[in-house]
């Protein structure tokens, strides 16, 4: 997998913005098959920063009901919280 397949998108949320400003941590959506080393290399390649730590978790998709007796589920996805070296930043806006 190349870097563009591993990192799907960066999550731009209020909590993520505060983490980026105060703790130098950024949240990205990663491919569920990717491991921490692959995510680290992909972030370093795409954003030209130095990654110190990667924490990952698998997020279960939510049940979705649209006024019907049967229900579906949104897709499962992998969240990665990436800690950068002091002084490095990712500009998301």
Indicate the topology:
Layout (H helix, E strand, L loop, with lengths): L2 H4 E4 L3 H9 L2 E6 L5 H12 L3 E9 L3 E2 L7 E2 L3 E8 L9
Antiparallel strand pairs: 1-2, 2-6, 3-6, 4-5
Description:
Helix content is 27%, strand content 33%. With 93 residues, it is α+β, with helices and mostly antiparallel strands. The chain has a four-stranded antiparallel sheet. A two-stranded antiparallel sheet has the order 4-5. The radius of gyration is 15 Å and the shape is globular. It starts with a helix and ends in a 9-residue tail after the last strand. The relative contact order is 0.27. The mean pLDDT is 93.
Number of strands: 6
Topology order in helix (H) and strand (E) letters: HEHEHEEEE
Number of helices: 3
Percentage of residues in strands = 25-35%
Mean pLDDT: 93
**Low-pLDDT sequence parts:** none
Largest sheet: 4 strands, antiparallel
Helical proportion, percent range = 25-40%
Secondary-structure-derived class: alpha+beta
Summarize the structure.
This protein has 93 residues and is an alpha+beta fold.
Describe this protein with a few key phrases.
93 residues, alpha+beta, 4-stranded antiparallel sheet, two-stranded antiparallel sheet, 27% helix, 33% strand
């Amino acid at each position: 997998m190349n870097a563009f397949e591993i990192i799907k998108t960066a999550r731009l949320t209020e909590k993520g913005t505060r983490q980026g400003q105060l703790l130098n941590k950024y949240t990205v959506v990663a491919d569920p098959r990717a491991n921490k080393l692959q995510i680290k290399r992909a972030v370093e390649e795409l954003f030209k920063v130095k990654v110190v730590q990667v924490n990952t978790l698998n997020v279960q998709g939510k049940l979705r009901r649209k006024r019907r007796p049967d229900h579906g589920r949104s897709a499962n996805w992998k969240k990665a919280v990436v800690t950068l070296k002091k002084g490095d930043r990712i500009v998301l806006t």
